[in-house]
Backbone:
């Protein structure tokens, strides 16, 4: 038992690598927040554009959503970081991770918001237009408020899943929690830094998982 | 344009790398064949635990679920792959990956199946039991078929995520599709194999993504 504690909870090693893991936590938070903001914003805009029903544009949006939902996030990150340089586009690891994860979140968010918009009965549109509201007003004042209520729970859960994917950025050498923990592990040849990383993830994500559970109860898709 | 074709869609390199990619694809499929049943079985156990009357069982299922939903799967995988050897057991990559997937995906399948079981009205079980079916028969013949049907879209969506997630096995050098593509990329100094791997994932998963969009639209129209 003493051996086990020495191996996985070695206080000396942990003290040494705590600053790095804390630094990693900060990077994870910044990356996660920026991905959620830009991903949701882009997904939202795409869904609204899609509701204008301009054929060629809609085909492109559906293609985008399908591709980024079907291809694994890690493959997308690796293509952005390791493949784009060969056509002269060179992005840093952090920017690649932000861009890749934002696009994946946007694809899922677009589909969710679009389903929400579809769920608003046609009569609502017609009635709003008949009272003299313009297309934009009708969207903003009548359709979106009803559509968004339904999308809160699925969007929250999807955003949480994508934020956890920030761990994938360690493959692109972005100094987030997992990268720092792994570096600590290989320097010290002791898994305590990994334990520290695991604890950091739990501290960040257990509250988020609970939050997701709460939102799910509060804004359930009522079938 | 020429650089794009040469760097991304290089036919000569594609031809050379295809056998390796096919080997990788085979490993990916094998991994899915192991990971999906394991995850569903684990999830079923969790779902049954969280719908029993025993508070202790429900509570432990919830702690397990929240814990493993909070861990990014890649963190879990690395913890298993790097940590277990310190306990005197060095798992082959396939075993480490399978174990990580069992722990991670069962928590997701568990949540989906729990929602499914809870969606079946209580009268169904009572009626089944009163016709003389045993508890197990009622579960197998009456409750689960309805539960699975009610959460069909979520099960498909979860399975899609599991298939995509197998790509993280490349990080522990399990020679699946992404790993094979990256190996060939590093030998040829050309991004074509990685792009090809992305396209293979797309071809493999596009039907599932389309199916999901269809489910979503139908769920909206029923309402």
Residues:
């Amino acid at each position: 038992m003493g051996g086990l504690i020495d191996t996985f909870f070695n206080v000396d090693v942990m003290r040494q690598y705590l600053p790095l893991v804390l630094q990693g936590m900060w990077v994870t938070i910044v990356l996660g927040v920026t991905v959620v903001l830009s991903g949701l914003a882009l997904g939202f805009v795409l869904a609204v554009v899609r509701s204008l029903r301009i054929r060629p544009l809609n085909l492109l949006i559906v293609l985008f959503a399908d591709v980024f939902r079907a291809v694994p996030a890690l493959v997308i990150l690796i293509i952005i970081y390791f493949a784009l340089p060969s056509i002269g586009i060179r992005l840093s690891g952090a920017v690649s991770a932000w861009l890749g994860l934002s696009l994946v979140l946007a694809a899922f968010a677009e589909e969710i918001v679009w389903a929400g918009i579809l769920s608003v009965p046609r009569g609502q549109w017609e009635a709003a237009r008949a009272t003299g509201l313009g297309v934009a007003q009708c969207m903003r004042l009548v359709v979106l408020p009803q559509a968004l209520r339904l999308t809160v729970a699925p969007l929250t859960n999807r955003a949480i899943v994508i934020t956890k994917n920030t761990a994938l950025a360690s493959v692109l050498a972005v100094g987030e929690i997992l990268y720092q923990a792994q570096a600590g592990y290989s320097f010290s040849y002791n898994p305590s830094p990994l334990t520290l990383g695991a604890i950091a993830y739990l501290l960040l994500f257990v509250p988020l998982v609970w939050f997701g559970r709460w939102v799910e109860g509060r804004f359930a898709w009522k079938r | 344009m020429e650089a794009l074709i040469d760097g991304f869609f290089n036919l000569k390199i594609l031809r050379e790398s295809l056998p390796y990619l096919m080997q990788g694809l085979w490993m990916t499929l094998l991994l899915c064949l192991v990971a999906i049943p394991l995850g569903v079985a684990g999830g079923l156990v969790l779902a049954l635990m969280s719908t029993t009357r025993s508070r202790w069982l429900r509570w432990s299922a919830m702690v397990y679920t929240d814990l493993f939903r909070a861990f990014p799967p890649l963190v879990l995988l690395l913890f298993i792959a790097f940590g277990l050897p310190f306990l005197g057991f060095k798992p082959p990559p396939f075993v480490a990956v399978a174990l990580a997937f069992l722990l991670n995906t069962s928590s997701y399948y568990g949540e989906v199946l729990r929602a499914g079981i809870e969606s079946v009205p209580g009268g169904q079980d009572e009626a089944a039991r009163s016709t003389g079916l045993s508890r197990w028969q009622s579960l197998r013949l009456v409750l689960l078929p309805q539960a699975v049907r009610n959460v069909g879209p979520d099960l498909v969506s979860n399975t899609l995520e599991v298939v995509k997630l197998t790509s993280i096995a490349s990080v522990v050098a399990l020679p699946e599709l992404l790993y094979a593509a990256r190996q060939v990329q590093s030998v040829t100094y050309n991004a074509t194999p990685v792009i090809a791997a992305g396209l293979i994932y797309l071809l493999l998963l596009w039907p599932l993504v389309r199916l999901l969009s269809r489910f979503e639209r139908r769920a909206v129209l029923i309402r």
About this structure: Residues 28-177 of chain A form a domain with the MetI-like fold fold (CATH 1.10.3720.10). Chain A touches chain B through 52 residues (CB under 8 Å).
